[in-house]
Write a structure and sequence with these properties.
By secondary structure, the chain is α/β, with parallel strands linked by helices. This is Beta-galactosidase.
Amino acid sequence: MKKQALLLGLICIILLNGCGTKSVFKTPKEEALAKIETLEGLMSKAKTNSIDVTREETTLWFSKEFIKFADWDEANKTAIAKLFSYERYYKDKKDSLAEMLPDFERKKVIQILDKSIDDLHKELNGEIKRRPVAKVDWKNAKAADNMFISNGKPSFPYDYFSKTVGQPLTNEAVYNDHLGAIYHGGENLYPVDHDRAINSFLLKEDGTFDEELMKELTSIPDTNIGFLIYWSMGIPEWAEAKEPEIRKGRSLFTGFDIDNPLAREIWGKIIRRTGELTKDKKVTELGYIFANEPHWYSEKGHWTGRYKEMNDISSYTLNKFKTWLKNKYDGNINALNKNWESTYKDFNAVEIEIPIDIALTGKPMWYDWNRYHMDRTTEWFKFNQDELHAVNPNADTHIKLFPRTFYEDSRSHGMDFEALTELTTMIGHDAKALGSKSIRPHINSDFIEKYTYKWGGMAILHDFLESVSPNKINVNSESHFLSSGQWRDLDARTSYVRNVYWLSTLMGMDANMGWFWARDPDGSPEDRLEGELNFFDPGLGGAYAGSNNMQPHIANEVTQVMLDLNTYSEEIIKLREQPRPLRFFYSETSAINTPKYMTKTNKLYKSLFFEGLPLGFVTKNIIEKQDNSTWNTVVVYNTEYVTDAEFTTLQSYLDNGGTVILDSSKSLSMNEYGEKRTQKLTSGNGKLIALKNADIVEIKKTALAEVADQMPDVIIESDNGNEFKTTISRVVKQKDGSYLVNLLNIGHNTTKIKLSLKSGAPITIKNIMTSNAVDAQFNLASEEVLLLEIK
């Protein structure tokens, strides 16, 4: 009788997702285990019918892992409560959260199993037909010119940046198709005193290397692709004893002065030696990362100041600044004194107070310091790259650029994103998104009024970097899409995960390492998260609580969407390798001098983001170095300060037949020092549309009129019940005359979609991911992603 009841229950689960409201199972764990058996049975049947079950294998793996994890969490509630307590958002609820977590995880396992069972039923019944999964070849994927290639196809490798410390790289419970299998030396390697492999401690005072520590790098198996990171957090005591100034002008993640000769000597030797030892190793296929989120905020009152970032500067930095000023002013101290309202007798006498007062914003001293600050940082990274390329000339390089230093207003951080992206052989960053309202009350969450998640920072960063270097591989080496110090949601949406990973890949992301995986295979948290936590890094201590390490549905969905992106990689590449006909003119000069430059730029960018065409940027360098025919129109907005060289380049663009929309007579009206410019742009051989104090609405209307003939042949009408749009669309015409269409809805409401062709010809539409026919009018759910073929 017991067996019959259990069988009846299983049939009800499979067919009706339960008969009645009362479950036949005593516990969620029993139910999850029964559904695992059900899925395994369906997978066996699917295999006999030659149906690919790679997606179900991932669901099965995460289900079994998280059942094990839930058991550990249940047996160690005190430890889990402590981990919740390290995140101030959860601290007051730590005990109740630890109590509920095990069954929460088991219920989420049931949720992902239900979806897999339903999907496989549909395929077995012929309701859908999915393309077999194209896996990443972790052993043989290669970096090509502007994408990774695996098994002859474009490939998007994925993994977790900070993977469970202490586990061997060959442990298949941690390195596999489900969690990703990118090897790396850096965050993963962990001598107790200094837990990074490539760091300042590799070099001893006598000039020899610490060979035991070096083994952490050289012992990485040469089997899987990976990356290496230069971790510059600390500096040895012997170096500090020799050079008392070596920590002056340090930053949050760079623990020494980048202008210090001894620091440079140490790092030059380390970079050369490690570059030699790792030359042509698979662990470098995704490049060498020169820094973790570099920034040197040098303004008074910035939050980084409490972490001793740029509390002062060294004599080396000051002397280099004096030399820079002498060159900038052609040796004319009177010109500097006029600008600075100072009375220095010569350049050697120049002084500056750092951190600098933000009240000086827009004044010549402010510009000179911040422009020099960017130049010195770029020179530091050029030194790094030159040292590496001296011994390893084909080494790929990138920097984990901190996105906020681009899309926020402050420019006291010393980071010239354009120069650094031009410098390195790959694009590098750690773009992020907020999947729901911020958990920090001081963080603005106004985006939630229109959109389901905060997408703007990730999007504008990608469009800028891809405009600067359109033919480089784009690596997000610490993707904060799942959680961060600003947000997390234990019951996060799988639809959000699919949408944000899909969108970022569509916009250029070629590889990503998520933040973060910290479970050992037995379910316990990794070594660094055991015992009393006291990290200098403000982000790590509370990172475990509410993260994907507690979310089977989220961890599974990350892999599911990456499996799909790799399976449809050729379509994704076609969609994203399109011209960017509409460009925004970006000026670092105005960004430095204008208090709200990026705030206003972001608003204009967002207003045009949903119009169905890829957006881009131009700068002086982009106009001079790239084929101007790859875009149609340049918009100049809120850009009062430009150098004479920037102005001349814009005029040359017009003289060569380009189109410029100028928002007002204020734009381009001053040089970098606020001196009025007598010249004004003229049409030349091109088209100059000079508006009068135009607002964003007028600029948008004018810009769209100029690129009307660049719009795709497929007309996409969307109605979400609001005055603003939330559907992102991309269209590309294929060689056979059909159209590839990608739709993503990032609004709260279901959107009504209508598809048609400009020609008025009748069309047939297919959902590429299910092989099902689609009507020309349909509903696009909140956060839904569709990949369509139109004939």
